[in-house]
């Protein structure tokens, strides 16, 4: 009929169950259980929503269902025999029986129709092509009739659905009547030009069509053309009447299809007596009631089907809306409670927050597993971040308030004692129903509905109940009045199914899904339920098993402010797999059993591995709470100790005592390059980035200190006198300045003032890896150290220009070779010497030859083995001895960042060229030191090409792999989504480690956003100060100047225009697009660059969206999702700290306003002003707002908007837009629309006409900007002329038009059973 013109537009109705969103650790994920309705949906194969809607209608037609179930294997055969030759197996009715039994009895959210469509003879593409449901209705019934030929059910389709129409033509002259009967399966009702179903039936069966004029009828009796009347009547009414509405028509004028979306009503009960030939009998013989409405949503070329069905046998659990079942007094009390709870929420009281969450739930109870998420949605912060420090774990808090809260449903839900959940209003989640092991609990929800509480009487069934919306996999309760919403619109009724009111159901069929279901199908469903239940139990056990890392106190000692393992070979940690649903006491008992020799108390403290070592946080004390409630998740670190001390040393716990690993730098003036000292038990050697092997230099040692100790206490711990100076490396120097060790260069260090000696390391923003220079006063006697104000300069003597090259004979790394086996030479070098020349000199002195690889090991006169004829490269090593990437030999020593008087290692391997990258990678797991593989690729290589080369290098094939980068914790981070981007575009640096991970790229829905920090020179905010202190020597790519939306950046900024802000890269965040703006702000504050920033609430932060390094718009609406804010992955955001809270409305505009200096062509510094344009966005409203801000008269102000890209000012006056001829009412004047389009960050210039007669807003900078624009336009014009002379001109853009799929006829293949 319509072919496959109805292509599926969208997949709707995915329900959220307890199983959705989880990832099974092993095996397949089991199907989710049924929802609250206790009815089963049908999975959509891609475009089979039309089939699902019709199948659900047939399932909820009890007479059809029972007729189908009455056919046994002796008539239909067995599916097991369908492959046997000569066997007559009626596959379609057998598969339909199995599907119906599964829908009735198997506990799953949705069933599959794959086996049924396979019996139709459909291939995989048929499942993605959508067809017309009216056409399917006729073809499916025809296929069933052909499949049941020769059985007792061969006529049941005809008995239930077929009726008869009699067409009559009456001669107006002789009265002769000519009649013809025709059979019908469904009645096709016209929609175009008709307002209701009754009117359409009246036109079909009551109105007569006259044959007159030029359209006469030849009467057989009169034997000539006569005037006649034609009419039709219903002769035989079937038990079930199907109405097909002609929603789709064809416009012959436009030659296109269209859908009728006008209002078309239909009754819930209808009497067909006026349309029948014989009108005798009771009204019940002609009365029908509606029980199914198939609905089409969309247009004539695409859409989606779902169905409204009345549950005749009450198999489902219908839930009335809460507003309908509660009296008005309860509604009033509920509103008052809601208002009280919202008022209390402002007090940050966890008791009131949890009370409000439970009070707003329809069931008056909350699942324990969902309480944390609901609390996050309510207040925008997690329990751990907001309340755990003062109140402990959430489980412990609930237990300590047992007078307010109580656990119900076997301890899985929490409710309030003052208002416990009722049995009627507390429907158990589907997961709880399926996992309930109590044999007295009814497995049928229908039975549960008939068992009210002891003190409750069963309520009478409400009118209009037991209507459900079955939308593929989703089933929801609806009201009878909701059917009226489908009278009109793009989502409207398409097929109507009526049943005779005479058809009564037996009492034993009500709420009994097993009624008349064959025993073999019941047994099949029971086996499937047992299989699914076993899968769910295994799945739950797998998903609740977490991996814990236990660190035992006897294997650790306190050193450098952190816990260090005694033995490097044995790190003192063991891995334990444990069920997170068990309690802390169970975990403690399991550890006691593992450590049989443990004596005394045992404390379990959450720990974390930091660069300085292991640090302890909070101790888990409540043995009765589960690990989940205690906040212990997989890969958590737990320290097992006595809770007081470790090897006699007191351990300070908590976030405030987090240790910081500093590089303590001291002067080194010795002559022995191999000299080592031992300070406080810590070996320290010369810094590889400083001076080495004789001559003045610096030596480094890594020392850990608690973050809460002061700088003065650090000096005491280092054993330095009070007159010693402590300096921090100065990273704000010029690019040309080199660090210590560069020939003729210098490095700067800032001296800490005396006041900083009383500040803690956290307050000074010192973090892991920062360098701390310790100088005694006599150090300045040397020419190496110079003190100028508060800056110490370390200068390299000109006679210390050399590089040391070490050659490990066996080609190994630095760590594995003994010192005496190394061969060391010193190569004279300068900053301008090429590294290739350095390597060649080293090869000459070491008597090595660089040839093509392939020769065996050779032994020199000293007995040392080396690789003769191998390729060599120069590599630096870090302070731990780990080899860094090979240096590019095409660069000079200075350009490659190699400091003089340092050591380079001569290692086998190739050096990358200037256009190449040296990358390390590992496959499948996190990289471990020394086990990464190396590869050299071009910078222009795409991610996909790089991945292929890595897979080829390790001998893997296939497409189910993707690349991930490491995050700042050196853990596997986010995937690289853009596989067609080059490595240089993604800013993948030399020496970076990538992880080849198995599996396809993760699904979309997560946004990766770059975050920049707004450093406004006008605002010396704490955020700016903290970030400056935490500056890590950002490169030019990480620092840029941004232009606020009101000013164009130029080389010479205008007077007073100091709104050119500096942006610094703060990192990147990965967040779901369904997260709110408040969630984004909270996650931004967790970035390492902002970890020490204290913001009272997220309202003190402003988030801008950047477009082309320009502040484009302010994101507003704390509870709006990022998807609604139209943020996409890769968007640049800018974070600005505010001095006061800000909550901008949808039409609040943040403007930069600046007042003109009287008599001068300049302005005072700009100010921020929030203009409320909600009610009035006219120029008068803005002028009034500015007048109130400056305390002036509105009539004395002249306003103009700065057009930054044109360097012009557009004067804002009270203007009238053009009046439409049709609408004589003047349009509203709005600055938010044309021609001004005011938006966030726009600059508004103000002239006070009382003291300033100059009405010109242009400044000297604007004139220079206009001159630059004219010069650029002239250059483009000349360039365009040159291009046109070469025959290059603008091409007309032609885009491909979207082609529709070819229409394919719908068919069902049926075997021959005659």
From TrEMBL:
Residues 1-38, 416-471, 1267-1314 are annotated as: Disordered. It comes from the Eukaryota. PROSITE patterns: USP_1, USP_2, USP_3. Residues 1-13 have a biased composition (Acidic residues). InterPro entries: Papain-like_cys_pep_sf, Peptidase_C19, Peptidase_C19_UCH, UBL_USP40, USP, USP_CS. Residues 452-466, 1267-1277 have a biased composition (Basic and acidic residues). GO terms for cellular component: cytosol; nucleus. Pfam families: UBL_USP40 (PF25822), UCH (PF00443). GO terms for biological process: protein deubiquitination. SUPFAM superfamilies: Cysteine proteinases. Residues 40-501 form the USP domain. Residues 431-443 have a biased composition (Polar residues). This is USP domain-containing protein. It comes from Etheostoma spectabile (orangethroat darter).
């Amino acid at each position: 009929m319509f072919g496959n013109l109805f292509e599926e537009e969208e997949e709707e109705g995915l329900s959220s169950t307890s199983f959705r969103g989880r990832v099974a650790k092993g095996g397949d994920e089991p199907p989710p259980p049924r929802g609250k309705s206790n009815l089963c949906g049908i999975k959509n194969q891609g475009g089979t929503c039309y089939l699902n809607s019709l199948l659900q209608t047939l399932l909820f037609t009890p007479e059809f269902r029972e007729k189908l179930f009455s056919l046994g294997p002796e008539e239909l055969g067995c599916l097991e025999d369908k492959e046997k030759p000569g066997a007559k197996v009626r596959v379609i009715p057998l598969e339909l029986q199995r599907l119906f039994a599964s829908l009735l009895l198997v506990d799953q959210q949705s069933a599959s129709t794959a086996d049924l469509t396979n019996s139709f003879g459909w291939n995989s593409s048929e499942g993605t092509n959508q067809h017309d449901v009216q056409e399917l209705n006729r073809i499916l019934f025809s296929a069933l009739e052909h499949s049941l030929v020769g059985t007792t059910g061969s006529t049941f389709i005809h008995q239930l659905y077929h009726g008869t129409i009699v067409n009559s033509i009456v001669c107006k002259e002789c009265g002769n009547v000519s009649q013809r009967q025709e059979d019908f399966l469904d009645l096709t009702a016209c929609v175009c030009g008709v307002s209701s179903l009754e009117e359409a039936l009246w036109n079909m069966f009551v109105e007569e069509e006259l044959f007159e004029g030029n359209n006469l009828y030849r009467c057989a009796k009169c034997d000539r053309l006569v005037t006649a009347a034609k009419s039709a009547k219903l002769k035989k009414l079937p038990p079930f009447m199907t109405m097909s509405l002609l929603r789709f028509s064809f416009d012959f004028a436009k030659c296109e299809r269209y859908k009728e979306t006008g209002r078309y009503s239909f009754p819930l009960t209808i009497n067909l007596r006026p349309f029948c030939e014989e009108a005798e009998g009771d009204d019940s013989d002609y009365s029908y009631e509606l029980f199914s409405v198939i609905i089409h949503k969309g247009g004539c070329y695409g859409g989606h089907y779902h169905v409204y069905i009345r549950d005749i046998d009450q198999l489902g659990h219908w839930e009335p809306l809460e507003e309908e079942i509660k009296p008005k007094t309860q509604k009033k009390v509920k509103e008052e409670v809601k208002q009280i709870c919202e008022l209390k929420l402002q007090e940050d009281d966890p008791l009131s927050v949890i009370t409000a969450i439970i009070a707003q739930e329809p069931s008056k109870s909350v699942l324990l597993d969902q309480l944390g998420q609901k609390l996050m949605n309510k207040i925008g912060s997690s329990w751990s971040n907001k309340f755990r420090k003062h109140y402990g774990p959430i489980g412990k808090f609930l237990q300590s308030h047992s007078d307010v809260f109580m656990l119900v449903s076997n301890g899985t839900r929490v409710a309030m004692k003052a208002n416990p959940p009722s049995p009627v209003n507390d429907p158990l989640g589907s997961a709880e129903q399926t996992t309930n092991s109590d044999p007295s609990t009814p497995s049928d929800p229908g039975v549960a509905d008939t068992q009210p509480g002891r003190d409750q009487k069963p309520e009478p069934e409400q009118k209009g109940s037991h209507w459900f919306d079955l939308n593929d996999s989703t089933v929801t309760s609806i009201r009878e009045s909701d059917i009226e919403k489908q009278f009109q619109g793009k989502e409207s009724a398409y097929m109507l199914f009526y049943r005779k009111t005479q058809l009564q159901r037996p009492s034993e069929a009500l709420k009994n899904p097993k009624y008349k279901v064959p025993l073999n199908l019941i047994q099949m469903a029971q086996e499937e339920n047992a299989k699914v239940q076993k899968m769910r139990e295994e799945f739950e056990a797998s998903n609740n098993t977490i991996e814990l890392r236990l660190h035992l106190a006897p294997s650790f000692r306190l050193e450098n402010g952190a816990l260090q393992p005694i033995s490097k070979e044995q790190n003192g940690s063991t891995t334990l797999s444990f069920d997170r649903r068990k309690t802390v006491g169970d975990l403690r008992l399991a550890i006691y059993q593992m450590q049989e020799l443990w004596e005394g108390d045992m404390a379990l403290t959450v720990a974390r591995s930091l660069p300085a070592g292991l640090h302890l946080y909070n101790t888990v004390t409540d043995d009765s709470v589960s690990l989940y409630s205690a906040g212990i998740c997989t890969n958590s670190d737990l320290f097992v100790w006595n809770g007081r001390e470790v090897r006699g040393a007191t351990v300070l716990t908590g976030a405030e005592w987090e240790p910081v690993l500093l590089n303590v730098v001291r002067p080194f003036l010795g002559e022995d390059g191999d000299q080592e000292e031992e300070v406080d038990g810590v070996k320290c050697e010369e810094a590889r980035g400083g001076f080495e092997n004789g001559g003045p230099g610096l030596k480094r040692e890594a020392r850990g200190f608690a973050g809460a100790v002061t700088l003065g206490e650090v000096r005491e711990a280092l054993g330095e006198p009070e007159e010693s100076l402590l300096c921090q490396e100065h990273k704000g120097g010029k690019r040309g300045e080199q660090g210590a060790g560069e020939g003729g260069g210098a490095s700067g260090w800032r001296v800490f003032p005396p006041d900083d000696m009383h500040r803690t390391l956290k307050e000074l923003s010192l973090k892991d890896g920062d360098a701390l220079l310790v100088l005694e006063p006599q150090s300045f006697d040397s020419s190496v150290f110079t003190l100028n104000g508060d800056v110490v300069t370390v200068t390299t003597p000109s006679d210390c220009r050399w590089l040391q090259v070490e050659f490990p004979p066996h080609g190994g790394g630095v760590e594995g070779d003994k010192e005496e086996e190394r061969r060391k030479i010193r190569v004279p070098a300068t900053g301008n010497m090429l590294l290739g020349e350095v390597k060649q000199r080293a090869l000459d002195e070491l008597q090595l030859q660089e040839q093509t690889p392939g020769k065996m090991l050779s032994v020199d006169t000293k007995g040392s083995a080396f690789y003769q004829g191998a390729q060599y490269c120069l590599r630096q090593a870090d302070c731990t001895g780990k080899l860094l990437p090979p240096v590019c030999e095409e660069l000079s020593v200075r350009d490659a960042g190699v400091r003089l008087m340092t050591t380079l290692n001569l290692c086998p391997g190739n050096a990358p060229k200037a256009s190449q990258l040296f990358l390390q990678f590992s496959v499948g797991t996190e990289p471990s030191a020394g086990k990464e593989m190396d590869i050299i690729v071009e910078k222009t290589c795409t991610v996909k090409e790089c991945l292929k080369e890595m897979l080829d290098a390790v001998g893997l094939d296939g497409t189910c792999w993707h690349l991930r980068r490491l995050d700042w914790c050196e853990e596997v981070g986010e995937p690289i989504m853009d596989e067609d981007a080059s490595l240089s575009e993604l800013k993948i640096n030399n020496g970076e480690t990538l992880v080849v991970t198995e599996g396809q790229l993760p699904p979309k829905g997560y946004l990766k956003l770059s975050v920049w920090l707004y450093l406004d020179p006008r605002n010396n905010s704490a955020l700016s100060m903290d970030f400056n202190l935490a500056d890590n020597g950002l490169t030019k790519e990480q620092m840029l100047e941004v232009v606020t939306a009101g000013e164009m950046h130029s080389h010479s900024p205008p007077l007073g225009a100091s709104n050119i802000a500096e942006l610094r890269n703060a990192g990147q965040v990965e967040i779901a697009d369904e997260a709110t703006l408040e969630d984004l702000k909270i996650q931004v504050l967790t970035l390492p660059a902002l970890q020490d920033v204290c913001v009272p609430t997220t309202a003190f932060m402003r988030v801008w969206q950047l477009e082309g390094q320009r502040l484009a718009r302010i994101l507003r609406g704390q509870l709006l999702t990022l998807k609604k804010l139209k943020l996409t992955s890769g968007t640049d955001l800018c974070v600005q700290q505010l001095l006061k809270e800000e909550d901008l409305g949808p039409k609040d505009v943040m403007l930069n306003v600046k007042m003109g200096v009287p008599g001068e062509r300049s302005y005072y510094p700009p100010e921020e002003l929030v203009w409320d344009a909600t009610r009035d966005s006219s120029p008068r409203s803005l002028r009034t707002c500015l007048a109130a801000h400056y305390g002036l008269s509105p009539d004395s102000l002249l306003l103009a908007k700065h057009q930054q890209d044109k360097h012009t000012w557009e004067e804002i006056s009270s203007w009238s837009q053009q009046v439409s001829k049709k609408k004589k009412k003047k349009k509203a004047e709005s600055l938010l629309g044309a021609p001004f389009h005011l938006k966030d960050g726009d600059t508004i210039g103000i002239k006070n006409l009382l003291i300033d007669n100059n009405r010109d807003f242009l400044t000297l900078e604007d004139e220079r900007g206009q001159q630059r624009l004219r010069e650029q336009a002239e250059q483009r014009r000349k360039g365009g002329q040159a291009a046109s002379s070469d025959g290059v001109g603008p091409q007309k853009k032609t885009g491909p038009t979207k082609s529709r799929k070819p229409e394919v006829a719908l068919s069902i293949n049926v075997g021959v059973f005659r």
